[in-house]
Every structure is written in structure tokens, then in C-alpha cells.
Design brief:
two-stranded antiparallel ribbon; 335 residues; disordered N terminus
């Protein structure tokens, strides 16, 4: 018969306790979090879909705002407020008093480039750290980054060429392309990666694509109207586009009539085919924006092109462009 004895556990040596991983104290965790700016913390963690969507939306907002502020630079004749690039003036990165308010306006617009860069960087970080990764979002966010680099180069050339109207028009048109990419990035961030399913007939999808193309043509020709008129960019820039202002304005108006016709046709077609109400509302909203744009456009034409109305018209052009893309992207869904 064997005798069994109970084993008494040996008391733990205090020195051994140091080798055991213990959770951080709440105070330590709070202290570590305090070292990271609050707006950066969500990006350093694995971002949620909502955080990714917000980062992508910030890129859209920033790319739209810089178009409007760029218009303010042009309309106040401040395009050469900072006569050199990348410096504001020879030997100074910031405007000097002798440049007056024109230098401040132009330099402020240049500073907004950093806000655009920060917003695009946030979108890149968010999409790269998201799990599972979504290649389409990474592709669009990096496309915006290279677009920002290209815009800096185009802007520099515009200044170096003393605001050559062709480069200024290209600068604005490129910005419109950046808005389109930003819209696609934000839209896809709120969708899944499932195969797209059409919500309307194929013929109507093609009609929506034609509408987007026509709106793009209106915006581009609008830059030519501005480049041939009194708000071409700088009071001392004698060169203007070699276009008759009346003729190019008429061409711009003709394209607007085409856009209005396409919008009305699409609205009736969507109603006739019992398309989803979201599509009908999006088309109606574009029609309302076009009506407002037409009112502003005719008012500025008959009142001698006051700068503040022209700026409002430029902001409306961005809204028109986004509204057209809203219709096209609403033509399909990804469940």
C-alpha cells in the first residue's frame, strides 16, 4: 500500500512575477494614447469602414475647395501675386509686404495644397491599413497622390509662363478630373467589392455616360470662356486666348442646352422604365443645379461679369460635375 501526500504549491518568488506579462495599467494606456493626436489615432489602428469612408470624403472635399479658391485667385487678379515658384518671391517662401494682398491670396491658395496633400495622405493610409485590403480603393487613393504631384508641376509651369491662358485652363481642367477620381474613391469606399449589378437598362447607363461627358465638355469650354475674357488671371497678363469671347460664350451655352436636354431625357426615361427613385431624384437634383447655374450664368453675362458671380458660377460648375457623376455611379449597386 502506497502512501500519497498532498503537494503544497511553492510560494511564488517575487522575482518570478517580473517575467509574467501583465496588462498595462489604465493610467499607462491613457498616457500612451495622449501622446498621439486624436485625429491620427483612428488611422494608426486598423481603420473601420466608416473611418476609411471619412478619409476618402475628406479628399473629395479638399479637392473641390482648392478649385474654388483657385478661382478666387484668378478672379482677384492674384495669379502672379507670388511671381515665382516654388518660392513666393525671389529669396522668400512667404509673401513680402511689397506684394500686397495679391501675394497673400496666392500664397493662401498654395497653402491649401498642403491640406489637399494631407487629405489624400489620410486616404492612402486608411486604405492601405484597412483589413481586408481593397485594391480598388488603394488604386484610386494613389491616383490622387500622383494627381497632386502633377497639379503642383502644372501650377508651377503656369506661374513660370506668366499665366499662359492655355496652362491655366489645363490646370483647372485637371482639377476637375481630380474631383471625379475623389468621387469614385468615396463612392467605392461605401460599397462592397461584389460584382456590380445594374439598376437601370443598359441604354440608360450609356445615356448617363453621355451626360457626364457633356457636362465635362461644358466645364472645359467654360475655362476657355474665362481665359478669353476679363478674368483671365492677372491684370498685367496682356495675353488672352485667341478666341472671340462672344463666339466661345455661345458655344458654352449651346453645350449647356445639350446637357439640359440629356438630363430631361434621362429623367423621363427613368420614370417610364420604373427605375429606382434614387436615380430619379439624382437626375432631378442635377436639373435643379443646372437651373441655378443658368440663372447665375445669364445674370453675370448681362451685369458685366462681376467677380463674385463668376466665382459662384465656378463653384456651381463643381457641383454640376459631382451631380452628374452621382447619377452615373447610382446606375449600379454592389450588394
Amino acid at each position: 500500500m502506497t502512501e500519497t501526500t498532498a503537494r503544497v504549491p511553492r510560494p511564488r518568488d517575487p522575482a518570478d512575477a517580473a517575467d509574467v506579462d501583465t496588462p498595462a495599467k489604465p493610467a499607462d494606456t491613457a498616457h500612451a494614447a495622449a501622446r498621439v493626436p486624436r485625429f491620427v489615432a483612428p488611422l494608426l489602428r486598423r481603420p473601420t469602414p466608416r473611418v476609411v469612408s471619412i478619409a476618402c470624403l475628406s479628399a473629395l472635399i479638399a479637392n473641390t475647395l482648392i478649385v474654388i479658391t483657385g478661382g478666387a485667385v484668378r478672379l482677384t487678379n492674384s495669379g502672379l501675386g507670388c511671381p515665382t515658384w516654388p518660392e513666393c518671391t525671389a529669396g522668400s517662401l512667404v509673401p513680402v509686404p511689397s506684394l500686397g494682398y495679391h501675394g497673400v491670396i496666392e500664397f493662401s491658395n498654395r497653402l491649401l495644397t498642403y491640406a489637399v496633400t494631407a487629405a489624400v495622405a489620410a486616404a492612402i493610409i486608411a486604405t492601405m491599413r484597412q483589413r481586408p485590403r481593397r485594391p480598388v480603393l488603394i488604386k484610386y487613393s494613389w491616383a490622387l497622390f500622383f494627381g497632386v504631384v502633377a497639379q503642383a508641376i502644372i501650377g508651377g509651369i503656369s506661374v513660370r509662363t506668366q499665366l499662359a491662358p492655355g496652362w491655366v485652363a489645363f490646370h483647372f481642367s485637371f482639377s476637375i478630373g481630380m474631383i471625379a477620381v475623389s468621387w469614385l474613391l468615396w463612392t467605392r469606399s461605401r460599397e462592397s467589392d461584389a460584382p456590380a449589378q445594374l439598376r437601370a437598362r443598359k441604354e440608360l447607363v450609356w445615356l448617363a455616360r453621355t451626360l457626364v461627358g457633356a457636362v465635362g465638355a461644358v466645364v472645359v469650354v467654360g475655362t476657355l470662356v474665362t481665359g478669353s475674357g476679363p478674368h483671365a488671371g492677372a491684370a498685367d497678363a496682356a495675353r488672352r486666348l485667341a478666341l472671340n469671347p462672344t463666339d466661345i460664350t455661345q458655344a458654352h451655352a449651346d453645350l449647356v442646352f445639350i446637357v439640359v436636354g440629356l438630363t430631361v431625357a434621362l429623367w423621363f426615361a427613368l420614370k417610364a422604365t420604373d427605375a429606382p427613385q434614387q436615380l430619379v431624384r439624382a437626375t432631378r437634383d442635377l436639373a435643379l443645379v443646372l437651373a441655378a447655374q443658368a440663372a447665375i450664368g445669364y445674370t453675370q453675362y448681362f451685369t458685366g461679369l462681376p467677380a463674385w458671380l463668376v466665382l459662384l458660377h465656378m463653384a456651381g460648375a463643381c457641383l454640376t460635375w459631382i451631380s452628374a457623376w452621382r447619377i452615373l455611379t447610382a446606375m449600379r449597386t454592389r450588394p
